[in-house]
Specification:
Number of helices: 7
Number of strands: 2
Number of domains: 1
Distance between the termini: 41 Å
Shape: globular
Order of helices and strands: HHHHHEHEH
């Protein structure tokens, strides 16, 4: 079953790549599922890590405009991949985008939890830049 792709979603995606604009959640959710299943545990590039986390952020922006029934369906489909990401990562004290972007964009640990998590491989490629949350 395809995900909704109405004008409110298209407005959110207007500055994204052609693929994201055209496919919306029908691209973003499978991409997040793939990230969860493969890359959350194995990715070692911070640049790629940030790209994948940004996909989840865009999904959150879309969730904010969905009617309750559509939102519930999408949230249901995110449950397993989100749990997989959490299982394959650990919390860090810093926002992966850095404090300037965190403040400018209004990111917070509760809503944007994915920006405060990292896997061991990415963590090890950025020595001293991030610290584990205890």
């Amino acid at each position: 079953m395809p995900y909704p792709h109405h004008h409110q979603i298209k407005d959110i995606l207007k500055d994204m790549s052609d693929l994201v604009q055209r496919e919306g959640l029908n691209y973003l959710i499978p991409r997040w599922q793939q990230f969860a299943g493969i890359y959350a545990a194995t990715e070692s590039s911070l640049y790629e890590w940030l790209n994948d986390l940004d996909s989840r952020k865009i999904i959150d922006e879309i969730l904010d405009v969905l009617p309750a029934d559509e939102r519930t369906n999408v949230e249901h489909d995110l449950k397993n991949p989100d749990a997989t990401v959490i299982a394959n990562t650990f919390e860090i004290n810093e926002c992966v985008w850095g404090s300037e972007v965190e403040v400018a964009e209004g990111y917070n640990r509760k809503k944007n939890w994915y920006y405060y998590r990292m896997n061991e491989s990415v963590f090890n490629t950025e020595p001293g830049r991030f610290t584990r949350r205890t």
